[in-house]
Specification:
Strand 5, helix 5 and strand 6 form a beta-alpha-beta unit. With 300 residues, this protein is an alpha/beta fold. It has one domain: Metal-dependent hydrolases (TIM Barrel). The radius of gyration is 18 Å and the shape is globular. Helix 5 packs parallel to helix 6 and helix 6 runs parallel beside helix 7. InterPro entries: Amidohydro-rel, Metal_Hydrolase, Metallo-dep_Lactonases. Pfam families: Amidohydro_2. It comes from Paenacidovorax monticola.
């Protein structure tokens, strides 16, 4: 069985921290998968192990779980406690606002913890194609936001980029501005619109982003708001992403427990192995494990 490095998952404990989106600010209308009440409970290391039982998961990367923003560093500290007790996660992508006076201070606080490898700080984005927020505070054109982003490579941090497909071309402009910044696109750039027109928009954005050699991509979260998880449809997305970015810059990620709203962990891994079966064995292993080990600097 191939070793698996899960390059993107979440953990949370309501006893240890506050998660507004899961507790008192539930809003299925704003969530990309719709109803997510099944997520509104603890998801622990033990539950992750149970979900991934039978898969050869050798390391994981925890990405910030939108814990209360007053507890950004507390989340990082708690994740280190989980690593000490359970052996994972093996790398942490923390949160810090990039457009605040305290940005550098917060980044340095995270870096007191040895597993921190990167930051995910979502830029302000438009709610739909054709809408524009360009130049507004917190967007990818905001000078304060860009100054904060510029701190990441100087501190040895990567950036987990999460934007919908209609912002991929803008993200490419940012990637070109910071060639020394290691960037990884979350969730395949969200090819939510599977119509011919929607896929063309996604593909054009991905091709533009892939021209920047510092950008990688996570093969993750193929769930759709209004439909089931369909392997044949998702295989098209996976194979096109591999063709655009090359196997050297793609990495498997589960996005559990969120992806569990549509598919089980073992079923997801098995499907991903089938969808990447056209690769040579060493290439498939790189996608399923080695690329994430290298990007997040995890000791094998």
């Amino acid at each position: 069985m191939l070793p698996i490095v899960d390059a993107h998952h979440h953990l949370w404990s309501f006893a240890q921290g506050r998660y507004p989106w899961l507790q008192h600010e539930y809003d299925a209308g704003k969530f990309f998968l719709g109803d997510y009440r099944a997520l509104c409970q603890d998801f622990s290391c033990a539950q992750y192990r149970q979900a991934s039982e039978g898969c050869n998961v050798v390391a994981t990367v925890h990405v910030e779980a939108e814990r209360d923003r007053g507890e950004q560093v507390a989340e990082t500290a708690w994740l280190h406690e989980q690593h000490a007790a359970h052996g994972f996660p093996n790398a942490v992508v923390a949160h810090a606002w990039l457009d605040r006076p305290e940005t550098e201070e917060r980044l340095r606080e995270h870096l007191r913890y040895p597993l921190v490898r990167g930051i995910r700080s979502k830029p302000v984005t438009a709610s739909a194609p054709g809408h524009s927020v360009k130049g507004r505070p917190g967007t990818m054109q905001d000078e304060r936001w860009l100054r904060g982003l510029a701190l990441l490579p100087t501190l040895g941090l990567s950036w987990d980029l999460r934007v919908p497909s209609w912002h991929l071309a803008e993200a490419a402009e940012v990637a070109a501005m910071f060639p020394q910044l290691a960037i990884v696109l979350n969730h395949h750039g969200f090819a939510w619109d599977r119509s011919a027109e929607g896929l063309k928009q996604w593909r054009d954005g991905m091709e533009r982003l892939a021209r920047e050699p510092n950008v990688h991509v996570k093969l993750s979260e193929f769930g759709l708001r209004d439909g089931p998880w369909v392997e044949a449809d998702n295989a098209v997305i996976v194979r096109e992403t591999l063709a655009i970015f090359g196997w050297q810059r793609c990495m498997f990620a589960s996005n559990f427990p969120v992806a569990g709203l549509r598919i089980g962990y073992r079923d997801l891994v098995d499907a991903m192995l089938r969808m990447t079966a056209h690769l040579a064995p060493g290439q498939q292993r790189a996608v399923m494990a080695d690329n994430a080990l290298r990007f997040y600097r995890i000791a094998p």
